[in-house]
Predict the 3D structure of the following.
Amino acid sequence: METAAPAAVIVAIDGPSGTGKSSTSKAVAAQLGLSYLDTGAQYRAITWWMVNNGIDLTDPSAVAAVAGKAEIISGTDPAAPTITVDGTDVAGPIRTSEVTSKVSAVSAVPEVRARITELQRSIAASAATAGKGIVVEGRDIGTTVLPDADLKVFLTASPEARAARRSGELKGADVKATQEALIKRDAADSSRKTSPLAKAGDAVEVDTTDLTLQQVIECVVTLVEEKRISQ
Ligand code: DC
């Protein structure tokens, strides 16, 4: 007997940095044959372009004026996600400490958010149209970008666990300094006026502090499968 193909599921995964969002989202998408979108990489990419073009990032009107200039293209294969700006591969440059320290200021500008949100919605719509489904990770996906997502997950972890994970990723970075930088960035991302980092009312919260990455992945895969069955 022929079985109907599962509907294209749209999954939103939000939370602060160091909660395992990227690793979890990529693995869940790969395991379930879905596309994957790292929205933080898009905000980093536009920040990289602004730094490269000498834009005064302390002046929101200067940032707003050029919010539409850079052409940002995200590759959504979870096994090999890519990001380019005006045709240049920026996967490495967007992870520098300079971009990391400036991305919150750029991403707080409403014109930047409007532009990147539109891009994200069109990528999610294409994945849905292709019948594939997508995992989209970020800070405001469940609340603002895709409020009708089939499943919303909000990942949390203690500040200590988040800092320890991030300094591990940054190979030997000082845990205390990393923790302070993380807390500062989360405070900026949570307190901005336009679509701050926030848990959607209908999101499932998963505290990852005492879980291994594998356990978090299994938990989210189970949540997606439950949604698919109930659809
Ligand atoms: O996930 P990340 O650390 O690469 O994200 C970089 C920054 O981008 C983060 O400090 C806040 C911003 N961001 C955002 O404002 N909205 C999103 N959906 C994703 C990231």
Q: What stands out?
A: The radius of gyration is 17 Å. The chain is about 50% helix and 15% strand.
